[in-house]
Amino acid sequence: MIGWGVVATGGIANVVTSDMLLVDDTEVRAVASRDLGRAQEFAAKYGIAKPYGDYRELIADPGVDVVYIASPHSGHYDVAKEALLAGKAVLCEKPITVTLAAAEELVAIARDRGVFLMEAMWTRFNPLVRKLRQLVADGVIGDVRTVQADLGAVFPTELTHRAWDPMLGGGSLLDVGIYPVAFTQMLLGEPAEIVTHGVVRDEVDAHASLLLRYPDGVSALLYSSIIASCPSKATVVGTKGRIELGAPFFATREMVLTIEGGDPVVETNDLWGNGYTYQIVEVNERVRNGDKESPGVTLDDTLAVARILSTALAQLGVSYPDTVR
Fold first, then answer.
1. Is 80 exceeded by the pLDDT of residue 159?
2. If pLDDT is split at 50, 70 and 90, which confidence band does 160 have?
3. pLDDT (mean) for 217-244
4. In a domain, 322, yes or no
5. Are residues 160 and 251 in the same domain?
6. Active-site residue, from 45, 81, 94, 131
7. What's the mean pLDDT in 67-96?
8. Range of the domain at 97
9. What span, in angstroms and rounded, lies between the C-alpha atoms of 72 and 46?
10. Residue 310 placed within a domain
11. Is residue 136 included in any domain, yes or no?
């Protein structure tokens, strides 16, 4: 059994924890919240033995092998750093940190201490996304020429909502834009050039369009928004055909492969739980094997995505308070 500790008790913590309970070799042994009462309620809901009112107590718990960080973006750095320094494996929600410098520091600590660290880019472990990745690697659609992906929704307009709060790392790029960016980076790597357009409201990006340019004319067109709903699909176009992921592409249940001159081939897959189960299995396997990172979401991948997001935010003129890391 791999013992997990969950830091924070919000929406994503609930969804992921419910998926943890579906994985046989997983035991959620502790939960931490700044409000002990909330931790106790969460523990009762999911049958967790130890609720804590401070994440430091959870990290110190000898029964916790993996610390899952589900706090708002601005809370990731402090918890992840302390967990890594304590020798605990870490699965951290995306983005791993608000700033590139903080991400670089966490990766350096993980590598120096030889401790497992993975950004929770769960999409990469979706069975259809894995299949797409293999089809592209095998050259089934020829040479990839472009990737198109978008993700956006109308978020609550109250400035108290985390999406609009710069102190919590708000904005479309860090919240939803990371999905199309990470999807593209998975297939094409880091771009040679980034061009960003968008709108900044209340100190955060409300929406952003990114053109990523790669050698030999390869490109990607990505869009993120917290003020408009998007199709939330992804398409990979190659010289011999294309692959389309059905909405929402980050948790897709449908993939359509079209080879030039042929009929579309549709493949479907029902998700196991909410779809986070696959990354839990991945982390358990890596931790059990003593691996320090996952080949599905490498530390270099995490830093590459962080660099893309950092550049795009800078081009929009978005900067976060110095205390936000």
1. no
2. confident
3. 97
4. no
5. yes
6. 94
7. 98
8. 2-119+277-296
9. 21
10. yes
11. yes
- Residue 88 known to be catalytic: no
pLDDT digits (tens, 9 = 90+) for 172-196: 999 999 999 999 999 999 999 999 9
